[in-house]
From TrEMBL, chain A:
Transmembrane segments: 92-110, 204-221
Family: Belongs to the YIP1 family.
Protein name per the record: Protein YIPF
Matches recorded under InterPro entries: Yip1/4-like, Yip1_dom
UniProt keyword terms in alphabetical order: Membrane, Transmembrane, Transmembrane helix
Residue ranges constituting the Yip1 domain according to the UniProt record: 77-218
GO cellular component: Golgi membrane; trans-Golgi network
Pfam families for this protein: Yip1
Topology in membrane: Multi-pass membrane protein
Automatic annotation (TrEMBL), chain B:
Name listed for the protein in its UniProt record: Protein YIPF3
Lineage: Eukaryota, Metazoa, Chordata, Craniata, Vertebrata
Transmembrane helix listed as a keyword: yes
Organism: Uria aalge
Compositionally biased intervals (Low complexity): 1-12
Transmembrane segments: 158-176, 188-214, 226-245, 251-271, 280-301
Amino acid sequence: FASCPRSQTGDPPPSSAFAPSEMLLSSQSYTGQILQPTYSPSTHLGYADGFDEEPPLLEELGINFEHIWQKTLTVLNPMKPADGSIMNETDLTGPMVFCLALGATLLLAGKVHFGYVYGMSAIGCLAMHALLNLMSVAGVSHGCVASVLGYCLLPMVILSSSAVVFSLQGIPGILLALFIIGWCSLSASKIFTSALAMEGQQLLIAYPCALLYGLFALLTVF
Amino acid sequence: AGPGTMSAPGAAAAGGGRSGSAAEWGGFEDNMQGGGSAVIDMENMDDTSGSSFEDMGEMHQRMKEEEEEEEGEAGAAEEEDGEFLGMKGLRGQLGRQVADQMWQVGKRQASRAFSLYANIDILRPYFDVEPVQVRARLLESMIPVKMINFPQKIAGELYGPLMLVFTLVAILLHGMKTSDTIIREGTLMGTAIGTCFGYWLGVSSFIYFLAYLCNAQITMVQMLSLLGYGLFGHCITLFVTYNIHFHSLFYIFWLGVGGLSTLRMVAVLVSRTVGHTQRLILCGTLAALHMLFLLYLHFAYHKVVEGILDTLEGPNMPPFQRVARDIPVVSNAVLNTTAKAIALTL
């Protein structure tokens, strides 16, 4: 009995090396039934009628609105303790939307700076990735860093939309910009420290994030 | 006996897989030979064309398994293989070999690049700091030490200096933006980063070289750390004087704050050098470079708005000189509006 499941689980992988990923996924999700002798491997070979069994488009693309909303709420409330596991999945749709929103609000204020936004995000992600890998025991991936930094760009969108209404080049504008920079960098450092288990070094992570978001604020204000 | 018995059913499965592939993957065969679809899926069309690298990787795996199996097998499987290849001809095989070679080269280059990247880990111990330590070192960098008779300890840490250089870049950018400085060849960001990093790395290397000549006991990381923390005074001075435009204030900060951080660096170096001439050379050079850099940063990157802007230059205007002149104590807004009013009337 002990060898039974092993030989049965050993069989599918070589033949399914060229199977479409959908079949692999469905065979893994049926692990419970593999141990039963009545399991027939022919149930998941119906490729012709796979249209009904395909996962929904959003699920296939990896866009999960619930998670996006949760992460947005985490960013908007820097005092709320972050759950370290929510950053395990690399989700770049939220950050993309926020970058586009920043570019759009800058456009409303008369500045066409899409290239600058993308360039600074890319270089900032690379630099933060290098720094975080040097400072933490566990490494991070580029996707995770890009995802976190992109989500924490949301308050900057608020700053640039307020720049549409009034000019930020006075004392109240500078104070608002400083407040937004602090908000962004606190959220980002909070998520990084909870995801990488780097308690006590939150300020050390917050400062480079503040410099990066300060660059975005410079773009917005001037 | 174990691998042999395992490979036999595997070979049968693979051989059966080849001839039975047409039966199992009925969908693919239809796509390949059906005349209905106008879109040809290159990936699935030909097993042996190897048009994508992912397929090459899997093919490599399969080829390795096949090689073990083919040796122990009769020509039956080979005949089937030949038949299968015969359908696609020589072109498929040639393409497969070329793709195979490219896969190998690419894999080798990628692993070499990866091992090079992994070398960044040698910098890891220099970033292991606590916020309290950074704050303490920042404050210490402004306090000159009194005891120069035995070598002073220098923390070999790179986080603080790196952040200070980036802060200096940010302050320079802020200063350039508030004063509408126009850089004709290059970008604002590039100039700021180039200046600050160039100073930090270049002057550190130069002083390290001089220290080597003068037999001073200092390593490269320590020199980088020392000079980096010495930029703290520069950051404070520039932050204050880019926002409050009084010349006398700048000179007071230059001598006071700049002087303190220079004195600290000089004292540390003196404690690590033996001999009067060597101490003089080393510390004189460092002091001169450090103080002159602060002077340069103030005057080159923050044009004091005192007259007509560059863009409003008319044919009978004298060429605008980017030299700071003493201005009376008037608010910046009044100056700006006056300048614009004068320019508009011309």
